[in-house]
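Sharing a chain and its predicted structure for anyone who wants a worked example. Both blocks are below, sequence first, tokens second.
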Amino acid sequence: MLLDTASLYFRAYFGVPESLTAPDGTPVNAVRGLLDFVARLVTDRTPTHLVACTDEDWRPAFRVAALPSYKAHRVAADADPELAGETVPDTLVPQVPVIFDLLDALGIARVGVAGYEADDVIGTLATTATTPVDVVTGDRDLFQLVDDARRVRVLYTARGVGRHEVVDERAVREKYGIPGRAYADYAVLRGDPSDGLPGVKGVGDKTAAQLVRQYGTLDALLAAVDAGDPALPAAAGRKLAAARDYLAVAPTVVRVATALAVPAHDARLPREPADPERLVELVDRWGVGSSVERVLAALQRAAA
């Protein structure tokens, strides 16, 4: 089980009341919520391995170099109150290191790679795994990793962790009308404003899906554009030709990395805390005993 950790603690922050505080009055709603999510997921899915994947760089330089608009609106949010929802809330910022400290003390593997997003860590671990993989995220971009042959699926948490949707190749095909592993090319064509990805002007969901079905891959589609393929609708061909510069760089932004040098880690589900004394200190300081107990109980049941 690979956790898109930021996706989960953002959901926890906005889904759990900020009135949940530590003894000193510091909000710990994201901390409590994240721990409860972990307990629920481990209980429901009983994974043999668990990795909390982290963003070491949420806006990597190589993606910005390819497409300067990538997440640019989030950088501008400090200057534009209308975009404030895209930034990390002030009361969430100090909770993130607490979450990391607790995961470390519990013995849950936490993995990030300098210069990359959690998506890239997940992509690497998912495509190199020798066991079935569940990717837990609220980010549709990771649908591109779904692979029935390798037994990789996404537990999509848009409706909540407890009501997550299991996304396999059939689900992608039914929802978007595209082959199971074609989501990245589909996303390039239609764009994603939340990530500053403009897409091809005039190409929406339906046209993007039709083009992916017709040509299979973005490379094949662009070859058809260059060759003047008569089977390609003329209007679509003109729109794609006009967006050629964008289409040359967008895949670098959208496709997750799958060959990172991931740090050594023990992903096995811990049977007991890695640092019991530190865990007690953290529980006392932050007042998260009940949530930690739920995680420990879930880990022990799953590891039994």
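Comments welcome. The two ends are 17 Å apart (CA to CA).
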